[in-house]
Design a protein that fits this description.
By secondary structure, the protein is of the alpha+beta class. It is about 20% helix and about 25% strand. A five-stranded mixed beta sheet has the order 3-4-7-6-5, with helices on one face. It is elongated. The chain starts with a strand and ends with a strand. About 5% of the residues have low confidence. The structure holds zinc ion (ZN). Zinc ion binds next to helix 2.
């Protein structure tokens, strides 16, 4: 039996509400854009380590600086922003990056601790686990 989301009223499975604290997945994503779902990297196509050619230049800059400091590219995937390039780093960010149009965000969901920089323009993202 589905129950209404506390935010928008859309019907959701009780299991989902238990996990999100009463919200549907689109609503929890507004608060936690990284909220995991069925399309998490494990189930999407195998990760490529090659950087996409259309990667946002400032995101690319951040990745280049991280690689210089010894970080590594874990892979490129479709999560958390399926329409954009998502680059996963193997280690935590080694530097603090500041660039216009780039936002830093940490997700403190206890099951998915992650830090990310993303470009407002394109949604391109570079992220690392902060477990
Ligand atoms: Zn909702």
């Amino acid at each position: 039996m589905k129950e209404p989301c506390n935010e928008c009223g859309k019907l959701v499975l009780p299991e989902t509400k238990k996990k999100t604290g009463g919200l549907c997945v689109p609503c929890i994503r507004k608060i936690y854009p990284m909220w995991p779902n069925k399309n998490t990297p494990k189930e999407s196509k195998p990760l490529s380590k090659k950087l996409p050619l259309d990667l946002h230049p400032r995101i690319k800059e951040i990745i280049d600086k991280e690689l210089e400091k010894g970080n590594e590219i874990e892979g490129v995937g479709v999560w958390p922003r399926p329409k954009s390039n998502n680059v996963y780093l193997k280690y935590r960010f080694k530097l603090e990056h500041k660039a216009s149009g780039i936002q830093y965000h940490e997700d403190h969901d206890p099951h998915y601790l992650i830090a990310e920089y993303f470009a407002h323009e394109t949604g391109d993202t570079v992220l690392c686990s902060i477990k």
